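Need residues for this backbone.
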């Protein structure tokens, strides 16, 4: 009986973690420092039981996440980062808000659009969509890996350094 209860709890948390939310707008192409991408958070059959607070975060040294415009969901709101401290996202920055609808409708489509992701660094990095119904239980709704290629000058310096190391031997 205990194992069944633990399994139900784990499945409940996994269900919450996915929360029917995904990050869209990035096709996996290579980016470089200074490039930007417009992202969206989309709902797929998000039920009233899955309405959640969310945070879209990344390492601020690698990428800045700003903006956001409310999409579907009559009580979907953006908080401008005011509640990021409540999420297990130490050292990360981004946007946050609440996704839901006052009628209890199932949500489909863009719930938050026009989110700007600006690449700051020269290394690939991860963007996480965190979700919580109550700031007590947290899950990663979705994540994506942003592919960053170093600028040509950096590549040239690395090659030059490799030549010097080889020459010393």
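Answer:
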């Amino acid at each position: 009986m205990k194992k069944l209860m633990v399994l139900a709890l784990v499945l409940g948390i996994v269900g919450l973690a996915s929360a029917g939310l995904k990050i869209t707008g990035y096709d996996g192409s290579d980016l470089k420092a200074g490039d930007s991408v417009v992202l969206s958070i989309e709902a797929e059959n998000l039920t009233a039981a899955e309405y959640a607070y969310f945070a879209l975060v990344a390492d601020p040294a690698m990428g800045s996440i700003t903006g956001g415009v409310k999409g579907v969901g009559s009580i979907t709101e953006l908080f401008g980062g005011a509640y990021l401290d409540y999420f297990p996202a130490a050292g990360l920055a981004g946007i946050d808000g609440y996704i839901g609808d006052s009628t209890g409708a199932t949500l489909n489509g863009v719930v938050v659009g026009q989110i700007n992701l600006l690449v700051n660094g020269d290394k690939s990095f991860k963007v996480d969509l965190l979700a919580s119904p109550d700031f007590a239980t947290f899950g990663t709704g979705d994540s994506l890996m942003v592919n960053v290629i170093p600028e040509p000058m950096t590549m040239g310096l690395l090659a030059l350094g490799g030549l010097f190391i080889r020459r010393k031997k």
